[in-house]
Fold this protein.
Amino acid sequence: MNEPLGPVLEHVIEEHKTVRPDVEIISHLDVNEPVFCDESRISDLLSNLLGNALTHGKSDAPVYVDAKVQNGEFSLSVANAGDRIPENQLEQIFQPFSRGKVKKGQDGLGLGLFIAYEIAQAHGGDISAISNETETRFTFTMPVDSPAGS
């Protein structure tokens, strides 16, 4: 732990707001306790999740970023409205080169979610995805005192 995690997360959110000013990003960060982690990697994880939400979500609906520390656990979630991810794709979404339906002008190799998964694992945490008719949500959790994050 080198610096407080809240400002690191805020910085990532602000960067994405600059790149995509057309999509509202609503954040609620309640990270007042120290989180033992590699802030740079957690920043990368959030950037990958937020980038996906902005790319695949509805442009006229906000993207939500929530982070909190509660009961010895740090959790970070990113949610967007958009097309439901089919169950067969959801089961493999964290595999390398796994991509859903590619939209015109969409870049990337399908590695962002794989990288997020690897970062989660390296921190002794987990990452999951749910998708239904109203939202798609990715949630990362890890213990706040995980020595794996150093």
Summary: Residues 123 and 149 are 4 Å apart (CA to CA). The beta strands are 25-30, 63-70, 73-80, 126-131, 136-143. Residues 39-56 form the longest helix (18 residues). The helical segments are 5-19, 39-56, 87-90, 112-122.
